[in-house]
Amino acid sequence: MKKEDISRFIRRKDVLGAFLVLFLVFGFYSVKLMSASPYVVNTQTLGTFREEGQLKHAAYLKPNELYGYMVFRDEYPISLVDRFLLTYTYRSGPPLSSGTYEVTGKVIYYVNKGSDEVIMWEETLFDEKGKLQEGGFTVEYTLDMNKLNELSANVAEELGMKRLNRRVIITTSVKGTGKVGGKTINENFDQEVELVRDGGAGLYYFTDTTKSAKRTLTKTTREEVSATVLGVESDLDTAKVVTTLLALLMLIPLVGYVYTARPPKDELAKIKPYIVKGAPGPVQKRVVLKTPNDLETTFELVDKPILHYIDGEDEVFAIIDDGISYEYRKPLPKEGDGAN
User: One Pfam family, short name please (predicted)?
Assistant: First the structure.
């Protein structure tokens, strides 16, 4: 098929309409796919890990007619407490497969300096260490308040400070490993409980006796997104490139048609009123003018009418002056093309 035949075929209205429809279709897919994410993120819950530490306490009392020998309370009268029975329990679920623990009791002596506390002395009351059993452990300790009071009196005497304050702190540290939903976890658990002596109220009480933690473990996967365009499935990135290229290809004939369909510029517009139809008689000499500008310049110089006639395959514009024909020739427009 010749180039001219292809050009005429593309410029047919039904063919141009098909190109326009295809451009709109591929353009729509291109814009739609450009805003889509190439991946879908899926989050799967593997399981939940829970752990809890709790300090249970009871007080052995001095002889009294109100509470008896032992009492379980949130607050205890300072004057009646002989000693505390402390039971600390840690458990995890699913149970940690291995790990260690350490439970330490300390008494801290301090004085107040303005709004600050100045620690003067620390004494370790007990320090229990061991390995986790079935993801947990239990530790018991008896805190003798009479001995603690004697220790406090000795420290105050050694320091020479009558207004020496004390704080009893019980700290727990657990480190362990385990599995939840097939995923290995490493856990660190810390807790601090304080025995407060409220002299104004005349009471002992414990703070933060229970601490629990919960953690949900998840697994994140990234799945590549596919796209279907006119029944053809491919990955999203490929579909973006292909639809964009096809939209641009469909646009080329449309742009070409708009460009070529414009009426051609009339190169002889300025001298058109002076052109008359007719062929010259015999002339002595012919001078070929190469461009319409040459014809226009010659017309301005000789100031004679321009003859327009057909000579074979050429369209001729001639100015006759003293037997000389000044001619500008151009090929006749082909079928389907416009003429000036």
Answer: DUF5305
pLDDT digits (tens, 9 = 90+) for 274-308: 888 888 888 888 888 888 888 888 888 888 888 89
Q: What are the residues whose beta carbons fall under 8 Å from the beta carbon of 15, sequence distance 6 or more? A: 9, 253
Instruction: Give residue 312's region: left, alpha or beta (phi > 0; psi -120 to 50).
Output: left
Report pTM.
0.58
So where are the chain's domains? Answer: 3-37+227-260, 46-222, 272-331
Of all helices (H) and strands (E), which one includes residue 260? Answer: helix 236-260
Which DSSP state fits 281? -
Cα–Cα distance, 330 to 94 (Å, whole number): 95
Determine the Cα–Cα distance for residues 52 and 172; give it in Å rounded to an integer: 11
b (16+ CB within 10 A) / e for 18-55: ebeebbebbbebbeebeeeeeeeeeeeeeeebebbbeb
What DSSP character marks residue 175?
A: E
Three-state secondary structure readout of 102-152: EEEEEEEEEEEECCEEEEEEEEEEEEEEEECECCEEEEEEEEEHHHHHHHH
Give the three-class secondary structure for 83: strand
Average pLDDT, stretch 216-223?
82
Tokens 């540290």 -> residue: 173
| 8-state DSSP, 334 | P
Contacts of 281 (CB under 8 A, 6+ apart): none
Longest dimension (CA), the chain: 155
Beta bridge partners of 327: 288, 318
